[in-house]
C-alpha cells in the first residue's frame, strides 16, 4: 500500500488521517510510528499556515519525500480569536487537553449562550522536496458548551458543539466527526493531489 507521512505526534489527529486516507488506499504514517526518534518541532510561527509549513518542510527535508502537516486550533469570538494558533499550549507548555479546556471554560464564565460562538480551523501544508508547498484550509463552526461532555475525539472536542447539533464533538462517533470537521473540510480540497499519490 502507498504511504504518506503526516508530520504530527498527535495521536488524535493521526487516527483521523488514517481514516481519511484509507478511503484512498493510502496508509497515513505519523511521526510516532517512524523508526527514527524525531525531536519536537518548534512551532515558532504566528499563523496556522506558517506552523503547518514549518512542520511539513522540516520533516520533508529529513525524509526526502512528500510530507503532510496539520496545524489547527480553536478560535473563540468572545476571546478575540484565542486560543487560536496557541491552542495546544494555551494553559502551558505541557500541552494538557484538560487544563486547556478548564482555562477556556473559566475565561467564558458569565458569557451567555449567544456570545459563545467559535470555530475549529485546520490548515494543511504539503511539502514536496523541490516544489512549492500546497496549503488548504478548513473550518467548522460551532459554540462553546457550558461544561464538558463526551469521551470521543481529542483536544477541545468535549466543549465544542458543532452548529446543527445539540451535543459536543466528543459525543459524536468518529465517523460523524470525520464528516463535518475542519480537518475533513481541509482534506477534501486535497483530493486531486491525494488521488495522484496512488498512481
Ligand atoms: O479536531 C479537533 N478537536 C479538538 N481539538 C482540536 C482539534 N484539532 C485541533 N485541536 C486542538 C488540539 C490542540 O490543542 C490544537 C492543535 O495544535 P497543533 O499544534 O496543531 O497540534 P499538536 O501540537 O497537538 O500536534 P502536532 O503539532 O504534532 O501535529 O488544537
Ligand atoms: Mg503542535
UniProtKB/TrEMBL annotation:
The active site is at 71 (proton acceptor). GO terms for molecular function: ITP diphosphatase activity. Coiled coil: none annotated. It catalyses: ITP + H2O = IMP + diphosphate + H(+); XTP + H2O = XMP + diphosphate + H(+); dITP + H2O = dIMP + diphosphate + H(+). Keywords: Hydrolase, Magnesium, Metal-binding, Nucleotide metabolism, Nucleotide-binding. Homodimer. HAMAP family: Non_canon_purine_NTPase. This is dITP/XTP pyrophosphatase. It comes from Lentibacillus juripiscarius.
